[in-house]
Amino acid sequence: MDGVELNKDQDLWLNISFMTKEASALLPKGHEMAWEQFQLRKQLIGESLQMPQDSPLQVEENLSDLLVKGEDFEYRFDKKSGHLKQMYSQGTKLLEDGPLFNVWRAPLANDIDPWNNGQHKNLQKTQEGLGRSRDNSWRTMGIDKLNYQVDAFQYTEMGEQGLEIRVEETARTATGLGGFSNHYIYHIDNNGTVQMHVESIAQGQLPNWLPRLGWQFRLPKELQTVSWFGRGPQENYPDRKTGYKFGNYQTTVDEMYVPYLIPQDFGNRSDVNRVKVENAAGAGLLIEGGLFNFSVHNYSTDHLERAMYAFQLQKANSVFLNIDQEVNGVGDTSLSTLREHRVLPGRYEFAIKITPVKAK
């Protein structure tokens, strides 16, 4: 195509749009009536293509932490929790905790409404007096409060190839009768890029389906600018996404808030392959991978589910970034989430690349 520069390393999309040719009593000229998108080329996001730096990583270990230092970055792993507890780049803190394995969300209005759940004779266990709702069943089976245990934490220094860290984790439900066996492999190259690969295997007594399956990152509250490539610009869920275009979008954490009458989970974006959260200076985190879901909140999940009214919401001292391999659909009032949009317990593999973004 004449006059169009095509980068062979990026996604390539063909967008077709049908618009009104002339103004009418109802619609202005140029109003979009219909559209479709065709993906002509898919960007491959895999191992880092950066060349290793001359200076190898410095690794320091004590009873509680593993400290990883590079030329202008410093990461700390908590050996007790297995988490990448902190990330600093050029002296700026980019991560306060995470990634934390998570299958819970602040219940949607449809999750707490007994109308669409009354049709299910297999709600499994519920607590007496709390209604026949999906969230009652989820809470009764203990997936809202997972207990984490690190079974193994090992690392291998690889010289010019960086550092590999392996973590074996068990996340048990509050009942102790079910849970998830999670196997993490982190690879940190000498430039500070982190490749995270996770295998998660469901075990024991669990609900028929889960609210979500993913990982939550807790970021400094200064990281308020959000940009991504995926569906947008408004929130969309697996059963509420086909009317939203793929594209590059940018907004703020505040603008991602959706003021539902009852505080609940909000702001999911589907079919995303990269998201960046940064501060006013442009420093932040870039997360890339295959198609995933993400949401960013100024409120903790616990706070969202405890609040009864929007005016009760108070911003936390952190930003909460959810990166989810799967998210349960919304459903509707009279009909619960269709099977194809449910997150079924099982075996999942997930991989992302986490790159610190330097200030502009």
Mean pLDDT: 91
Which residues sit in consecutive blocks of at least 5 with pLDDT less than 50?
none
* Helicity range: under 10%
Q: Between the first and last Cα atoms, what is the distance in angstroms?
A: 33 Å
Give me the CATH fold name of the largest domain. Answer: Beta-galactosidase, Chain A, domain 5
Number of helices: 3
Q: What would the principal axes of the Cα set say about the shape?
A: globular
Count of discrete structural domains = 2
Largest sheet report: 12 strands, antiparallel
Number of strands: 19
Percent of sequence in beta strands: over 45%
**Overall CATH class of the largest domain:** Mainly Beta
CATH architecture of the largest domain: Distorted Sandwich
Give the SSE order as H and E letters.
EEEEEEEEHHEEEEEEEEEHEE
| Class by alpha and beta content | mainly beta
Radius of gyration: 22 Å
Key attributes of the depicted protein:
globular, 19 strands, 360 residues, mainly beta, five-stranded antiparallel beta sheet, Beta-galactosidase, Chain A, domain 5, 2 domains
Explained architecture:
The protein is mainly beta. It is built from three helices and 19 strands. The chain starts with 11 loop residues before the first strand and ends with a strand. The relative contact order is 0.16.
